[in-house]
Amino acid sequence: MPRTTFEELLDAGVHFGHLTRKWNPNMAPYIFMEKNGIHIIDLHKTLAQIDDAAEALKRIAKSGRKILFVATKKQAKEIVAERVKQTGMPYVTERWSGGMLTNFPTVRKAVKKMNTIDRMATDGTFDHMSKRERLQVSRQRAKLEKLLGSIKDLTRLPAALFVVDISKEYIAVREAIKLNIPVFGLVDTNSDPELIDFVIPGNDDASKSIALIIDIVCRAIEEGLSERKAEKEKEAATAKNKTEKAEPSEKTESTKSDNK
After folding, report:
1. Is the pLDDT of residue 257 over 70?
2. Which CATH class is domain 6-99+157-237?
3. How many H helices and E strands in the chain?
4. Where do the domains of the chain lie?
5. Beta bridge partners of 201
């Protein structure tokens, strides 16, 4: 069953591309026509690409690995933060710090610094600091939270990136490519689809378009997480049954030994 419909995509304005003079020729396979100086995206292609991307993201989530969402543009950041947070996946909606992937150990150190400051606030360390020192530390904590708070649970490199506007987030895309991390993206007509692994051709400027695509992929991730949870519960139940079956046998053997 398709994850969305042609009508839903049309209603959200996913088909609206950029001005024809701003196009990237590599997007030609995904363009349906030109109208009033604007490229119109082929939504039949978008439908197929969404299904492929969603299934791949579902498999990654089911495997227990993390998908990092990147969307720092104004129209996307609140949508991504609100929806992705529900899945428990990490996301970056403030400035992308260069080296966030390629220099990941340094990023982890910064996250640990946040945790250290949190401990200082609860173990009495703050009580022995001057008001000025406490203020400086608190400001440092707030700055780190803004940049890294949404990825503090990312203890290792993500299994994949999902990017809204691969042209704007070119540094993140470049780092992922360097590390062979698969990149999924909402790709408009002004971007190069050949840079990434899973292309979802669509309008990456309109909030309604972004919201629809993000909701679809997040639902796929939630499906993967639910299936993973169900499998773990099934495995736990099976292990429990095996243990319970084994225990009577052990008691029987013990009784036989006592009778002898």
Report:
1. no
2. alpha beta
3. 7, 8
4. 6-99+157-237, 102-156
5. 187
